[in-house]
Amino acid sequence: MSYAADRAEIEDLMARYLFAMDYHDADGYAECFTEDGELDWAMGVARGREAIRAEALSFKERIGEIFKDSSGAAAKLRHVVAHKAIRVDGDRAWNTGFWFEMTNGGPDGSIALPSFGIYEDDLVRVDARWLFRRRKIYNEFLPGRESGPANPVVAMDAA
């Protein structure tokens, strides 16, 4: 495989992950991880695909308690990955990427940008498919979940 092909497949994985999250597809979300994958996010750490699926099943309700639209109903969330620094070495890869989310939580249902952060990913190719082995999500707006003051790409490259 070429770097370009690997990168395209990894970016496709990121898109499938975000669509599954935003449209509450717990099975599709869990399938983005290896069987023994790990999700480290604001609500805790889930280890294994089944535990990650369980987290995804609770995501809509839990997030709906935090993000509301102007009527008080659960807001719709749509996530975007912007910058991606992807390194590939054979069947392993690493990504550090910037994400943000939009909601319909602004006045009269207008767009709001309530949160953003950094993804740190450890990926592996399994049966010709890239999957997350570990995804850590930093949330810059939550105390204790910030990415810190240093350039996160430098830390990824050093590792």
What's the level 1 CATH class?
Answer: Alpha Beta
Please list the strands of the largest sheet in the order they lie side by side.
2-1-6-5-4-3
Structural class: alpha+beta
How far the N terminus sits from the C terminus, by CA atoms, comes to 23 Å
Give the number of domains: 1
Coarse morphology: globular
Order of helices and strands: HHEEHEEEEH
- The radius of gyration computed from the alpha-carbon positions, rounded to a whole number of angstroms, is 16 Å
- What's the tally of helices? 4
The average pLDDT is: 94
How would you describe this protein?
The relative contact order is 0.17. The protein has 4 helices and 6 strands; from the N terminus they run ααββαββββα. It has helices spanning about 5-20, 25-30, 50-65, 150-159; strands at about 35-40, 45, 75-90, 90-105, 110-125, 130-140. The radius of gyration is 16 Å and the shape is globular. The chain is an alpha+beta fold. The protein has one domain (about 5-159): Nuclear Transport Factor 2, Chain: A (Roll), CATH 3.10.450.50. Strands 2-1-6-5-4-3 form a 6-stranded mixed sheet, with helices on both faces. The model has no long low-confidence stretch (mean pLDDT about 95). The longest helix is centred in the first third of the chain and has 20 residues, at about 5-20.
